[in-house]
Amino acid sequence: MVAATGITNLRWFNSGCYRPKLFYCVSFAAALSVAACSENLSEPAAMTTRPDQTETLAANCGGSVRLIESNGIALRIVEAGSGPLVILVHGWPESWYSWRHQLQPLAAAGYHVVAPDMRGYGGSARPSNIEDYDILQLTADVAGIVAAVGATSAVLVGHDWGAPIVWQSALLYPELFSAVVGMSVIYGGRATNRPVVKLRQEAEEDFFYTSYFQTPGVAEAEFDANPRQLISRLYTSRSPGTPTHPPEVTDPSAAAGGWLPRLGEPVRLPEWLSEQDLDYYTAQFERSGFAGGINYYRNGARNWDLTPQLADARIHQPALFLAGDLDIVNRNATREELAARMAPNFTDLRDVILLPGIGHRVQQQAPDETNRLVLKFLASLRLRDNWGQSKNTVVFAAE
After folding, report:
1. End-to-end distance of the chain based on CA atoms, in angstroms?
2. 3-state SS, residue 111
3. What is the DSSP-derived secondary structure letter of residue 267?
4. What is the pLDDT of residues 135-147, one digit of tens each?
5. Strand partners of residue 128
């Protein structure tokens, strides 16, 4: 038995968590058996002696921590509030903590907000096989959260790798997911042809990180050796306006080395990322390692093979896309260009929004505007109308 964490006497620290004018906290206390999936919950990587700050940081953000069973594995979730369920799905290389600014505002607005560590990350299970990270497993993990927290449906919000996961979840589980928000990565439909994924990058080719990720054991060895450098350099490189030192490696060829020396060391951290934030991200990857998250990238062709039923499929749920206009993922595409690529694959695409001056990690770099837009979208769905009268409602008592 694994007891769910009941957090009382919540305190607000200078943690960088969003602080609304009206504060209330919700604590959950329950017991959950995860015996059926314990064999899939691998031991921590034991690369750190730092104490785990997850419960403290979750409490700072108005949330609590517990393990649930979903799709036969253990997932660690941070949750807050009561009401219609909203699931926040993070990307790479991140964790539930990437949603620290969203938990309290969404809970305060009357939603039950759940931010999991996805499989391979943080305190969740880390299966060893690459195939365990294909899109069918990832979407089934998300789908399983709904019943595990006592709900019957949910709205999905996903960023970076979380975006393709929520787009695909909406397609594969239309009966569970009533609406979807994707951030950074659009849904442009299923590729006509099977992706060509090389098993390794040739030395004479130009370095590209997704190609670098394909050989098992290589990229994770580089990143596991220095998680703090990877997180600080990568986050800074995707944060416009934050100065960096020149990279140690400027030769574009793959033979010149790995990824870290190609990313300039930050002169300072971006304003949206504190030293405490960096400490927590670093500690989480010291515990889990990077292999799980990198395995997502190793399933591109397999994902296509597994989803022939999605050819010409459209997302019928209400949908919103949000990104920064400086997000490198979208290669300077305009709102109109992105909307044109997305529209044929949706029947109810409510809006495509680009926030000016914002880079890749939109919900961390522009939390106030992100929260405003997500809450506006949620309000338009009228999910709270008569919600409390539903016989399926699960009410969590505030302490």
Report:
1. 24
2. coil
3. S
4. 999 999 999 999 9
5. none
Across the chain, what does the average pLDDT equal? Answer: 87
Residue 87 φ then ψ, to 5°: -105, 125
- Using an 8 Å Cβ cutoff, are 122 and 284 in contact? yes
Strands (E), the chain: 2-3, 31-32, 64-70, 73-80, 85-89, 112-116, 154-159, 177-183, 319-324, 349-355
pLDDT at 36: 34
Q: Which two tokens stand for residue 393?
A: 């409602």
Q: Does 312 lie in the same domain as 231?
A: no
- As annotated, the active-site residues are 160, 360
Contact in structure between 81 and 105 (CB atoms under 8 Å): no
Amino acid at 172: L
Q: pLDDT of 181-192, one tens digit each?
A: 999 999 999 999
Q: Are 35 and 72 in contact (CB under 8 A)?
A: no
Does 397 fall in a domain? no
Please give, one letter per residue, the 3-state secondary structure of 270-282. CCCCCHHHHHHHH
Same domain? 31 vs 47: yes
Look up the domain containing 174 and give its range: 2-191+304-389
